[in-house]
Design a protein that fits this description.
The chain is built from 15 helices and two strands. It has about 300 residues and is mostly helical. Strand 1 and strand 2 form a beta hairpin. The longest helix is centred in the C-terminal third of the chain and has 28 residues, at about 205-230. The structure holds 3-methylbut-3-enyl trihydrogen diphosphate (2 copies) and magnesium ion (MG) (3 copies).
Length: about 300
């Protein structure tokens, strides 16, 4: 007999379907003068993926009484931005990976130039979507969202994190240095998800501060779990190869502090995150289960 679906798992699949549906429509309606570029973008955007960042946006909205329809555009923009970062992360000049989301990486399925351009075009498409006329958000809210997302992804966030990640290959970095890289390359975009969802909310400055601390903790936790999965995960479940960090002489959390200490760190990060979530809102929220999922995921 099939187990009754929990409310949380229904929320997860509803939000994933909501996002996937919109991405499908986006690629049907967006025509490109270059069919190959369009195909490469569509290939990576619709290749699967857990859609964790859109889920964080929708769950934060749900916790702060923002209708999900108001968050569709930011959710789509963030997922496109994230997918662009993966396409570029996998390029030979970066991590040189051949498998992503269970499929050949964009540059393997197409070619390097197409993968570079697909990433570029996805990044600008994200901002096009955020800035286009929107029946649910006013211009001030849209501008705030553009600021949050651009700050998280460029020189103040992901791009710098990725640059440091590559610049420190083969180096004996400390845990503090690694934490800094992880907060930039992965944490910044995850924090942006929470901030974006709060833009159309009535959250007070105090609530926002607690949510920022919550977001920082889960952002770091997300990359620590990614590091752990690279060491102890199952490549079939992950849809990407394991052992790649060690192979590239890249120090990750388990390499610096060990598997057990990394797992303990995850528990502490979650406790801290949930403490601040509770200070921000007493409402039962899917963010609690989502936080747990981030550190318990196998993929
Ligand atoms: C992988 O992100 C890259 C990191 C920032 C660790 P995800 O684990 O969210 O990848 P997808 O979107 O599910 O493929
Ligand atoms: C990726 O970190 C971070 C970004 C894409 C910004 P990783 O290089 O560890 O991600 P995976 O393991 O390839 O998914
Ligand atoms: Mg990388
Ligand atoms: Mg990588
Ligand atoms: Mg990794």
């Amino acid at each position: 007999m099939k187990m009754a679906k929990t409310k949380f798992s229904s929320f997860l699949s509803d939000c994933q379907n909501r996002l996937n549906q919109q991405l499908h429509e986006l690629f049907i309606t967006q025509k490109s003068p270059s069919p190959r570029l369009h195909e490469a973008m569509q290939y990576s955007a619709l290749a699967g993926g857990k859609r964790i960042r859109p889920l964080l946006i929708y769950a934060t909205g749900e916790a702060f009484d923002v209708p999900l329809s108001h968050l569709d555009k930011p959710a789509m923009a963030v997922e496109l931005l994230h997918t662009y970062s993966l396409i570029h992360d996998d390029l030979p000049a970066m991590d040189n990976d051949v498998l992503r989301r269970g499929k050949p990486t964009c540059h393997i399925a197409f070619d390097e130039a197409s993968a570079i351009l697909a990433g570029d075009a996805m990044q600008t498409l994200a901002f096009e979507i955020l800035s286009a006329p929107n029946q649910h958000l006013d211009a001030h809210q849209q501008l705030r969202m553009i600021f949050i997302l651009s700050r998280a992804c460029g020189i103040h966030g992901m791009a710098s994190g990725q640059a440091l990640d590559l610049a420190t290959l083969g180096e004996n970095i400390t845990q503090d240095e690694l934490q800094h890289i992880h907060e930039l390359k992965t944490g910044a975009l995850i924090s942006a998800c929470i901030e974006l969802a709060l833009v159309p909310s009535q959250a007070s400055p105090e609530q926002i501060t607690h949510m920022q601390i919550f977001a920082q903790a889960i952002g770091l936790a997300f990359q620590v779990q990614d590091d752990l999965l690279d060491v102890i995960g199952d490549p079939n479940e992950l849809g990407k190869p394991t052992g790649m960090d060690a192979k590239r002489d890249k120090l990750n959390y388990p390499a610096i502090i060990g598997v057990e200490a990394s797992q303990n760190l995850l528990k502490n990060l979650v406790t801290n995150a949930l403490d601040h979530l509770h200070l921000a809102t007493k409402k039962p929220t899917y963010l609690k289960e989502l936080t747990q999922l981030i550190i318990e995921r196998n993929a």
